[in-house]
Write a sequence for this structure.
């Protein structure tokens, strides 16, 4: 008999874990990445601070 275990995925916990890792990998020389997270309300913002000689800036999303 095969037993399957179903686990609950907490989306907010997953995002809170992934965003800081993304911020570390996305930063370049002369640039810092700020992660602003409100997991209770499901609002997230990734902001690039500094000069990258290109246009860009914010990455914002909401999860409900």
């Amino acid at each position: 008999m095969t037993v399957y275990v179903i686990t609950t995925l907490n989306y907010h916990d997953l995002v809170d874990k992934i965003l800081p890792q993304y911020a570390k990998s996305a930063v370049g020389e002369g640039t810092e990445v700020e992660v602003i997270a409100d997991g209770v309300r499901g609002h997230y913002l990734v902001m690039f601070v500094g000069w990258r000689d290109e246009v860009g800036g914010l990455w914002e999303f909401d999860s409900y």
User: Anything to note?
Assistant: The first helix runs from residue 11 to 26. The CA atoms of residues 46 and 52 lie 15 Å apart. The mean pLDDT is 76. Helices lie at 11-26.
